[in-house]
Amino acid sequence: MMTSEGDVFDVAIVGCGPAGIAAAIDFQTTPTLKFIVLEARDRVGGRVVTDTITFGINAPVDLGAQWIHHYRPENPLYKHNQLSKDSHINYQFNLRSSATPFFDIDGTRISSDKIDKAEEIVNRLCTKIEEASLSIDKSMFDVIKTEYENYDNDSDPQLKRLIDLFFGVIEQYEASNLDQLSAKSYVKSDSALAETNLAMPNGFGKFIQNLVEQHKLPVELNCVVARIDTSLSNSIVHIYTKDERLFLCKYVLVTIPLGCLKAHSIQFIPNLPEWKQNAIDIMGVGIYDKIFLQFPFVFWDPKWTSIFCTSPRFRFILCRSDVCMLSIKLGGRVALEIEQKNEQETINEVMILLRTIFSDRNVPEPTRYLTTKWAQDQFAKGAYSNFAVGTDNQTLIDLGRECNDRIHWAGEHANYDGTIGCVDSAFESAQREAKKIVSKLPL
Hints:
Blueprint: E1 2-14, H1 18-27, E2 35-38, E3 50-51, E4 61-62, E5 67-68, H2 78-84, E6 88-90, E7 102-103, H3 112-131, H4 140-150, H5 157-174, E8 197-199, H6 204-215, E9 219-220, E10 225-229, E11 237-241, E12 245-254, H7 258-262, E13 267-269, H8 274-282, E14 284-286, E15 288-294, E16 306-309, E17 316-320, E18 325-331, H9 332-339, H10 343-357, E19 368-371, E20 384-386, H11 393-400, E21 407-409, H12 423-440
Parallel strand pairs: 1-2, 1-12, 2-9, 7-16, 10-13, 12-21
Antiparallel strand pairs: 3-4, 5-8, 6-8, 10-11, 11-12, 14-20, 15-18, 15-19, 16-17, 17-18
Helix pairs in contact: 1-12, 3-4, 3-5, 8-11
C-alpha cells in the first residue's frame, strides 16, 4: 500500500467536476489549508467536457453540460466568465420563433394555429400539476392522466403528437419521463429563477478546464477512489484507491455524481447512515444524451436555430449552420433505449427522419457523427439529478448534510439552497461546504 508521501491533508476532494473545482478554488483563498483533488478520469470537468477531436478544433461540441444556466451576477460562475469574455447570451429552446419550424412525422410543416392550440392545452395541464393539492406525492403524469388520455381518442392525432412534443420539452429538460417526476416538486429544480442561459462558443468543458489551469489546482488524475474509512479512532480519514494508494485527510468532500453513489462506486466504512443512503436511493437521476451529425453542406434553412419534430424519438434538433452540423437532444427512456442500440442503426433512423422532413431536397450522408452514452459512463452513470416521485427539498438537505463526522457532500444533486441539476448548482453546493470545512479547521 502506497501512501501519499506520508502527508495528512486538511481536505481531500473526491471528484474534479464542477463541485470539486469550485471547492478547490475556495480552499485556495486560505493559504495555510492543505488539500488535494482526486479525480478518477484522465481529465478534469466530469460531466462538462468539450470534444474538439471528432469534428475538429473549429467545431467544438459539448458532450455534457452546454450552457451556464440562470446567468446573472449572483451566479457563482459569473465572475469567472467575466474574465474570459468567451460567451454570448442564448436560450436553450426558443419554442415560438420563425427560426424554429415545427414538422410532423410525415414531414408536413405544422401550422401556427395548431401549435397554439397544443401549447394552450399543455400550459393548462401544467398549471393543473402546479396547483395540485396532494397529501401524498404522485407523478406529474398521474395528476393529468385522465385528461391527457382523452386526447388519445381525439379526431386529430397530429394535435396529440404536438401535445407530446411540448411535454417532451419538460422531459428533455429534466432528463426523465413525466411518470417518473414528482408532481409536488414540479418547477422546484430551478428555484423560480429565470431561464437565461449563456452559451460558450469554444465549449463549456474548455471553459471549466481553463479554470483548473488558471488556478493551478492540485489534481491527481486517474485516481479511482474505492473506499473511504472514517472508523479509526485518530480522527483521520483513510481514502483507498483501486490501485492501492492511500490518502490521509482530516475531512473529505465527496463530489462524485449521484448515479455513482447509487451504484455504490465507493465503499464507506462504516456504512452511511440510513437517512443518507435513503436520500441517495430515492433522488432521481435522469438520462440525457446527444447525437451530433456533420454534413458536407447545409440542406436546411441556414437561418434556423432549431427544428422541432413530433417524432417520439428525435424531437429536438439544434442547427449549427456555420459548421454544417445538427445535434439531437435525447432524454429519459428514449435516451436509455438508444444507448443500448448499435450506433449506426441510430444514425440510419435519424437519416430516415431527416429525409422525410426534407423530401424535396438532397440530404447527404453525414461525414462524421458522434453519440453520447452518459448512462453507460462508469464515472457518471447518468446525466443529472431531478425530483423523482417522493422526493423534495428535505431529500436535498439529506444529500448535502455531512455525516460520519468527517464526510461532507457537494454536487448538483446536493444544492438544497438553490437550483439542482446544473453546473451552477454544483458550484453553489461546493462553496457552501467549503465554508463549513474551513470553519472547522484550526487554521
